[in-house]
Amino acid sequence: MVGFNIEGPTRDRVMKLIEEKDRIESEIRDQTAILESNNVDMHVTLVDSEGFPRNDIDVYKVRHARHRIICLQNDHKSIMKKIEEGLGEVYSDFRGSNVNASTSQTENTSLTYTNGHGLNNAHNSGNEQQCFAVVGFVHNGSPADIAGLTENDELLQFGSVNYSNFSDITQVHDVVAHSVGQRIQVRVKRDQQVLSLTVVPRPWAHPGLLGCQIRRITPS
Protein backbone atom coordinates (compact mmCIF):
# COMPACT_ATOMS: atom_id res chain seq x y z
CA MET A 1 0.00 0.00 0.00
CA VAL A 2 0.94 3.67 0.00
CA GLY A 3 3.76 4.15 2.48
CA PHE A 4 3.04 7.80 3.38
CA ASN A 5 0.73 9.07 6.06
CA ILE A 6 -0.65 12.04 4.08
CA GLU A 7 -4.08 12.91 2.80
CA GLY A 8 -5.25 14.41 -0.47
CA PRO A 9 -6.91 13.67 -3.82
CA THR A 10 -3.81 11.98 -5.23
CA ARG A 11 -3.63 9.51 -2.37
CA ASP A 12 -7.40 8.85 -2.61
CA ARG A 13 -7.05 8.15 -6.34
CA VAL A 14 -4.19 5.72 -5.74
CA MET A 15 -6.15 3.91 -3.03
CA LYS A 16 -9.09 3.49 -5.43
CA LEU A 17 -6.73 2.12 -8.08
CA ILE A 18 -5.35 -0.37 -5.56
CA GLU A 19 -8.89 -1.45 -4.67
CA GLU A 20 -9.62 -2.02 -8.36
CA LYS A 21 -6.36 -3.96 -8.72
CA ASP A 22 -7.40 -6.18 -5.81
CA ARG A 23 -10.75 -6.82 -7.52
CA ILE A 24 -9.00 -7.76 -10.78
CA GLU A 25 -6.65 -10.15 -8.98
CA SER A 26 -9.61 -11.75 -7.19
CA GLU A 27 -11.40 -12.35 -10.49
CA ILE A 28 -8.23 -13.79 -12.02
CA ARG A 29 -8.14 -16.30 -9.16
CA ASP A 30 -11.83 -17.13 -9.71
CA GLN A 31 -11.33 -17.70 -13.44
CA THR A 32 -8.19 -19.75 -12.78
CA ALA A 33 -10.22 -21.94 -10.41
CA ILE A 34 -12.53 -22.78 -13.33
CA LEU A 35 -9.54 -24.00 -15.33
CA GLU A 36 -8.28 -26.01 -12.38
CA SER A 37 -11.68 -27.63 -11.84
CA ASN A 38 -11.44 -28.88 -15.43
CA ASN A 39 -7.81 -29.99 -15.00
CA VAL A 40 -6.55 -27.64 -17.73
CA ASP A 41 -4.41 -24.54 -17.93
CA MET A 42 -4.13 -21.68 -20.44
CA HIS A 43 -2.49 -23.86 -23.09
CA VAL A 44 -3.87 -27.42 -22.99
CA THR A 45 -5.75 -28.33 -26.18
CA LEU A 46 -9.55 -28.42 -25.96
CA VAL A 47 -10.09 -30.86 -28.84
CA ASP A 48 -9.56 -34.60 -29.02
CA SER A 49 -7.36 -36.52 -31.45
CA GLU A 50 -10.11 -36.34 -34.09
CA GLY A 51 -10.52 -32.60 -33.76
CA PHE A 52 -13.79 -32.65 -31.85
CA PRO A 53 -14.37 -30.71 -28.61
CA ARG A 54 -13.31 -32.78 -25.63
CA ASN A 55 -16.21 -34.32 -23.74
CA ASP A 56 -14.36 -34.60 -20.42
CA ILE A 57 -14.35 -30.85 -19.79
CA ASP A 58 -16.74 -27.93 -20.07
CA VAL A 59 -15.22 -26.46 -23.22
CA TYR A 60 -17.44 -23.36 -23.21
CA LYS A 61 -16.55 -22.42 -19.61
CA VAL A 62 -12.85 -23.09 -20.20
CA ARG A 63 -12.73 -20.95 -23.33
CA HIS A 64 -14.60 -18.15 -21.60
CA ALA A 65 -12.30 -18.34 -18.56
CA ARG A 66 -9.18 -18.24 -20.74
CA HIS A 67 -10.45 -15.21 -22.63
CA ARG A 68 -11.41 -13.47 -19.42
CA ILE A 69 -8.01 -14.15 -17.82
CA ILE A 70 -6.21 -12.63 -20.81
CA CYS A 71 -8.40 -9.51 -20.61
CA LEU A 72 -7.91 -9.25 -16.85
CA GLN A 73 -4.14 -9.64 -17.14
CA ASN A 74 -4.07 -6.75 -19.62
CA ASP A 75 -6.21 -4.69 -17.24
CA HIS A 76 -3.88 -5.61 -14.37
CA LYS A 77 -0.81 -4.50 -16.31
CA SER A 78 -2.47 -1.17 -17.15
CA ILE A 79 -3.62 -0.44 -13.61
CA MET A 80 -0.24 -1.32 -12.13
CA LYS A 81 1.29 1.34 -14.37
CA LYS A 82 -1.29 3.88 -13.15
CA ILE A 83 -0.57 2.93 -9.52
CA GLU A 84 3.16 3.41 -10.08
CA GLU A 85 2.55 6.84 -11.60
CA GLY A 86 0.22 7.76 -8.76
CA LEU A 87 2.74 6.68 -6.13
CA GLY A 88 5.27 8.92 -7.86
CA GLU A 89 2.88 11.83 -7.42
CA VAL A 90 2.32 10.92 -3.77
CA TYR A 91 6.07 10.86 -3.31
CA SER A 92 6.33 14.34 -4.82
CA ASP A 93 3.63 15.60 -2.44
CA PHE A 94 5.47 13.99 0.44
CA ARG A 95 8.74 15.67 -0.50
CA GLY A 96 6.96 18.99 -0.85
CA SER A 97 5.57 18.67 2.67
CA ASN A 98 9.04 18.06 4.06
CA VAL A 99 11.02 20.87 2.43
CA ASN A 100 12.55 21.79 5.78
CA ALA A 101 14.26 18.42 6.17
CA SER A 102 18.03 18.62 6.41
CA THR A 103 20.07 18.30 3.22
CA SER A 104 22.42 15.76 4.73
CA GLN A 105 19.54 13.46 5.59
CA THR A 106 18.15 13.79 2.08
CA GLU A 107 21.50 12.91 0.55
CA ASN A 108 21.80 9.76 2.62
CA THR A 109 18.25 8.47 2.19
CA SER A 110 16.47 7.52 -1.01
CA LEU A 111 12.92 6.29 -1.52
CA THR A 112 12.33 3.67 -4.16
CA TYR A 113 9.23 2.14 -5.67
CA THR A 114 9.32 -1.64 -5.72
CA ASN A 115 7.05 -4.12 -7.52
CA GLY A 116 3.99 -1.92 -7.48
CA HIS A 117 3.67 -2.39 -3.74
CA GLY A 118 4.89 0.76 -2.10
CA LEU A 119 7.80 2.93 -1.15
CA ASN A 120 10.58 2.02 1.19
CA ASN A 121 13.81 3.34 2.59
CA ALA A 122 16.55 2.10 0.29
CA HIS A 123 19.39 3.17 2.55
CA ASN A 124 19.92 0.06 4.65
CA SER A 125 23.31 0.92 6.16
CA GLY A 126 24.46 -2.09 8.17
CA ASN A 127 21.08 -3.81 8.07
CA GLU A 128 21.17 -4.90 4.43
CA GLN A 129 22.84 -8.19 5.37
CA GLN A 130 20.49 -8.99 8.24
CA CYS A 131 17.75 -11.59 7.71
CA PHE A 132 14.17 -11.05 8.83
CA ALA A 133 12.38 -14.23 7.67
CA VAL A 134 13.08 -17.77 6.55
CA VAL A 135 11.59 -19.93 3.80
CA GLY A 136 9.86 -23.10 4.99
CA PHE A 137 8.67 -25.88 2.68
CA VAL A 138 8.64 -25.21 -1.08
CA HIS A 139 6.21 -27.10 -3.33
CA ASN A 140 7.69 -28.66 -6.47
CA GLY A 141 6.68 -26.75 -9.59
CA SER A 142 5.42 -23.75 -7.64
CA PRO A 143 6.32 -20.14 -8.52
CA ALA A 144 8.73 -20.15 -5.56
CA ASP A 145 10.37 -23.36 -6.78
CA ILE A 146 10.66 -22.00 -10.33
CA ALA A 147 12.28 -18.84 -8.95
CA GLY A 148 14.93 -20.92 -7.19
CA LEU A 149 13.83 -20.51 -3.58
CA THR A 150 14.64 -23.46 -1.36
CA GLU A 151 13.78 -24.48 2.17
CA ASN A 152 15.80 -22.68 4.88
CA ASP A 153 16.70 -19.73 2.63
CA GLU A 154 16.96 -16.67 4.87
CA LEU A 155 15.35 -13.51 3.46
CA LEU A 156 17.42 -10.34 3.29
CA GLN A 157 14.97 -8.57 0.98
CA PHE A 158 11.55 -9.38 -0.42
CA GLY A 159 10.44 -6.63 -2.79
CA SER A 160 10.07 -3.52 -0.65
CA VAL A 161 10.52 -5.41 2.63
CA ASN A 162 13.89 -5.66 4.35
CA TYR A 163 15.26 -5.89 7.88
CA SER A 164 15.05 -2.14 8.42
CA ASN A 165 11.32 -1.81 7.75
CA PHE A 166 10.10 -5.30 8.65
CA SER A 167 7.61 -5.55 11.50
CA ASP A 168 5.23 -8.38 10.61
CA ILE A 169 5.10 -11.27 8.14
CA THR A 170 1.90 -9.83 6.68
CA GLN A 171 4.11 -7.26 4.92
CA VAL A 172 5.48 -10.09 2.77
CA HIS A 173 1.95 -11.38 2.14
CA ASP A 174 0.89 -7.89 1.05
CA VAL A 175 3.75 -7.63 -1.43
CA VAL A 176 2.73 -11.00 -2.91
CA ALA A 177 -0.98 -10.12 -3.07
CA HIS A 178 -0.27 -6.81 -4.79
CA SER A 179 2.24 -8.23 -7.28
CA VAL A 180 0.35 -11.00 -9.08
CA GLY A 181 2.05 -11.53 -12.43
CA GLN A 182 4.76 -9.01 -11.50
CA ARG A 183 8.45 -9.68 -10.85
CA ILE A 184 9.54 -9.37 -7.22
CA GLN A 185 13.24 -8.99 -6.51
CA VAL A 186 14.35 -11.25 -3.67
CA ARG A 187 17.72 -11.53 -1.92
CA VAL A 188 18.40 -14.56 0.23
CA LYS A 189 21.23 -15.91 2.32
CA ARG A 190 21.89 -19.59 1.64
CA ASP A 191 24.67 -21.09 3.72
CA GLN A 192 27.41 -18.47 3.25
CA GLN A 193 26.16 -17.18 -0.10
CA VAL A 194 23.90 -14.22 -0.87
CA LEU A 195 21.72 -14.85 -3.92
CA SER A 196 19.52 -12.48 -5.95
CA LEU A 197 16.37 -14.14 -7.28
CA THR A 198 13.19 -13.06 -9.05
CA VAL A 199 9.83 -14.57 -8.14
CA VAL A 200 6.53 -13.97 -9.94
CA PRO A 201 3.45 -14.64 -7.79
CA ARG A 202 0.63 -16.23 -9.80
CA PRO A 203 -2.20 -18.72 -9.53
CA TRP A 204 -0.94 -22.26 -10.11
CA ALA A 205 -2.08 -25.84 -9.56
CA HIS A 206 -2.44 -25.49 -5.79
CA PRO A 207 -3.69 -22.81 -3.37
CA GLY A 208 -1.56 -19.73 -2.81
CA LEU A 209 0.41 -17.53 -5.17
CA LEU A 210 3.94 -18.62 -4.21
CA GLY A 211 3.71 -22.24 -3.16
CA CYS A 212 6.02 -21.88 -0.19
CA GLN A 213 5.92 -21.05 3.48
CA ILE A 214 7.60 -17.89 4.76
CA ARG A 215 7.88 -17.39 8.51
CA ARG A 216 9.43 -14.83 10.77
CA ILE A 217 12.83 -15.63 12.20
CA THR A 218 12.49 -16.32 15.89
CA PRO A 219 15.26 -14.63 17.90
CA SER A 220 17.44 -17.19 19.63
UniProtKB/TrEMBL annotation:
BP term (GO), one: proteasome regulatory particle assembly
Stretches assigned to coiled coil: none
InterPro entries per the UniProt record, alphabetical: Nas2_N, PDZ, PSMD9
GO CC list: cytoplasm; nucleus
Keyword Chaperone: yes
Sequence ranges assigned to domain PDZ in this UniProt record: 115-192
Top-rank taxon: Eukaryota
Signal sequence interval, chain numbering: none
Keywords: Chaperone
SMART domains attached to this UniProt entry: PDZ (SM00228)
Family affiliation: Belongs to the proteasome subunit p27 family.
Protein name: 26S proteasome non-ATPase regulatory subunit 9
Species this protein is from: Parnassius apollo (Apollo butterfly)
Lineage summary: Eukaryota, Metazoa, Ecdysozoa, Arthropoda, Hexapoda
